[in-house]
Amino acid sequence: MGAGVRIVQKVSSTPAFARIAPHLIPAMDRAVHRLTRGKVLLSAQMLPGVILTARGAKSGLPRRTPLACMPEGGKGREGASWILIGSNFGRTDHPAWTANLLAHPDAEVSWKGRDIPVTARLLRGEERDTVWKALLEFWPPYATYQARVDREIRLFRIVRRDAPGSSGNATGGSPPE
Fold first, then answer.
1. How far apart are CA 148 and CA 110, in angstroms?
2. What pTM value is reported for the model?
């Protein structure tokens, strides 16, 4: 890991970053994504990212949210599934997009300039624990975010709707609180 990545990890773990980043980073990501016609996501220069389009939990209207993600799968499977992390930059509340996915698990992601229909599933129990460990190896600052809040950070696996095994109950029940 390079010095630049370590610096970004250290900065992204600070309370000041948690106050400023939620207002600045998504707006910059949306603008750059729009200007490059979906080819570039600014924050993805450090971490992989998607633009999630999900229906609002209450309104039912499409909501576009730039998110960091952890792609799953190896060669030949890239772009089949991703882990989305509801860290909300270590702030106390769950991010709104997580409620949207719980209410409407069928969504769409923009990944490397392609729009892909997906289904989301909230991870729980042992499956969540296993993914959380992998996630902390992938991006250690998530441990700082979790330590800062009383809630359990929601993790979602999103899978291409056209992928085998992607149908069925996506949320697995009501959300933990």
1. 30
2. 0.74
